[in-house]
Amino acid sequence: MSHAPVRLDAGGVRQLARGFTLVEVLCALAIVATISVVSFRLILEASDQYTDTVVRAEASSRMGSALERVATQLREIPVRSGSSPVAPNITAMTETSLSYVDANGTTQSLGLSGTTLTWNDGAGAKELLRDVTALSLRAYDESNAILPASPSAAQRDLVRRIQITMTTTRQGVVETLRTRVFLRALAAGSGS
What we know:
Blueprint: E1 6-8, E2 14-16, H1 22-75, E3 90-93, E4 97-101, E5 107-113, E6 116-120, E7 125-129, E8 132-140, H2 153-156, E9 161-170, E10 173-182
Antiparallel strand pairs: 1-2, 3-4, 4-5, 5-6, 6-7, 8-9, 9-10
């Protein structure tokens, strides 16, 4: 038969000593350690998800701004003077670049230089967006049929819409945006 440890209080009365055994203390420490590890992993995972969300939101914002700026410029491609039927004043187009002459006679161009999307307005190239891993420009005619990736001069005369697709990669996060631009000067009722 085991006896609980006994201690005497100030008046000499015997009391049972109360405390934890070494096994109980070790079990409690193991439980606390397990809860701490699980909690740390959950916090770390939430932090990583937050970081990915912030990077994705920033990429979407930067890409959206650049894409809107490009779309605004492309909408304003004028009609080539003296063309019959009306044709856009696009001088060159590939899957990753486009050049046209604006209403003032200045050559404007859009293209990818390494991983930087640039716009050249005749006064020099201006950076629109960095970390661009892919750029695709596709042209469509009046019936919405896709034209070749590098249309000939005759095919460029048929362009009525341009689809822009951009992909960026930053901190391991890949984001892609796409829009289709209607050339205003060539739209029905534009007075061209």
